[in-house]
Design a protein that fits this description.
single chain; alpha+beta; 55% helix; five-stranded antiparallel β-sheet
Length: 259
């Protein structure tokens, strides 16, 4: 053995060092590793570090996600206010069926929506209304008819955003609260109802942000945070083992002396 006190191989003065070493060897070999005191402490520290780091990540991630959505809410409100002041609201009375897409009013409003969409960086900007059967359908799409996801008049609303559309047609603001997964990708959808002179809801303006970047950012943040959490757990565990080995010498010497 090496003397635990003075690090010499042969130590006459420090006989207690040999006793401590012998006791430690006997103690460690008699108890399974997973039942040893030091293993339990390492496990507790690792779990504490893990859940602390995980809790901090969840709080930060939720706050960042909510902040991003709130920014989009404010932008949607500004865009909706401007758009509804620009377009001709007679579209909800004069544009009703697929054949009306050739009318000058439809072409004019569609181009206005498309311009606002590009300037604002939106994924989609369009109007909706109820058809004669009372079904909520797409009305005027703010994009070219040549685009693959163009919606003609009378196309049923996507199932994923139908709930928000119903709120708008009931005279309520339907502002995006969470990312909605649709057949054309994740979006943040908001609807702003339009009323006539009789205070009746005649349609709504639909605003959709592409939430793909936000979703990818959340995934990258999750993976990065998990990697950081694992590093913290490993670091804390190794640090404890190092400290424990240094301070446990005196502890086991005392135990050996008692023994």
């Amino acid at each position: 053995f090496l003397c635990l006190e003075c690090s010499y191989q042969i130590c006459v003065e420090h006989k207690l060092c040999f006793a401590a070493q012998a006791f430690l060897d006997r103690f460690n070999h008699s108890i399974p590793f997973f039942k040893r005191f030091e293993f339990k402490i390492v496990l507790i520290i690792a779990m504490t570090a893990f859940f602390t780091a995980l809790s901090a990540f969840i709080v930060i991630a939720v706050q960042r996600h909510n902040a991003s959505i709130n920014v989009m809410k404010i932008q949607s409100e500004i865009i909706a206010g401007y758009t509804l002041n620009v377009i001709d609201k007679n579209i909800f009375h004069e544009i009703n069926v697929h054949g009306d897409e050739s009318k000058d009013l439809y072409v004019k409003v569609s181009r206005q929506l498309e311009e606002i969409k590009h300037v604002s960086g939106l994924r989609y900007l369009y109007t909706i209304k109820k058809d004669q059967a009372g079904t909520i359908v797409y009305h005027i799409d703010g994009q070219s008819a040549e685009t693959p996801d163009f919606c003609h008049i009378g196309t049923p609303i996507e199932e994923g955003i139908l709930e928000e559309a119903k709120l708008a047609m009931a005279g309520q603001r339907a502002v995006a609260k969470k990312v909605i997964n649709t057949s054309y990708g994740p979006v943040l959808a908001s609807y702003w109802y339009v009323k006539n002179a009789q205070n009746e809801v005649i349609g709504a303006l639909g605003i959709e942000y592409d939430a793909k970047n936000l979703t990818n950012l959340d995934k990258r943040a999750l993976l990065t945070s998990l990697a950081i959490i694992i590093c913290i757990v490993i670091f804390m565990s190794l640090l404890f083992i190092l400290v424990y080995k240094n301070i446990s010498v005196l502890f086991h010497q005392k135990l050996a002396y008692v023994d």
